[in-house]
């Protein structure tokens, strides 16, 4: 019961990885004509890159925990 933070940290790690990869995949998908295409691609790419950066921090935290 003393290592309760590791499963929670693993859950956060998994969530950030899935959100990062899905955001990057969504940035490559075609968007409808009425939407500002470049803005949505940049936003999804930024969210994906920042989530993968946070994923790297969580992996490091798991490695030293």
Structural Rg: 15 Å
Give the helix level as a range of percent: over 70%
- Report how far apart the termini are: 15 Å
How much strand content do the residues show?
A: under 5%
Number of helices: 2
Order of helices and strands: HH
Task: For this entry, give a set of tags.
65 residues; 2 helices; 0% strand
Short description:
By secondary structure, the chain is mainly alpha-helical.
Explain what this protein looks like in three dimensions.
- The chain is elongated, with a radius of gyration of 15 Å.
- The protein has one domain (4-64).
- The longest helix has 28 residues, at 37-64.
- The protein contains two helices and no strands.
- The chain has helices at 5-28, 37-64.
- The mean pLDDT is 90.
- By secondary structure, it is mostly helical.
Strand-helix topology:
Elements lengths: L4 H24 L8 H28 L1
């Amino acid at each position: 019961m003393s290592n309760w933070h590791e499963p929670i940290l693993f859950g956060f790690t998994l969530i950030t990885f899935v959100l990062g990869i899905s955001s990057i995949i969504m940035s490559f998908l075609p968007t409808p004509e009425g939407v500002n295409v470049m803005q949505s691609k940049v936003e999804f790419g930024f969210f994906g890159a920042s989530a993968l950066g946070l994923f790297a921090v969580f992996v490091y935290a798991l490695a030293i925990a």
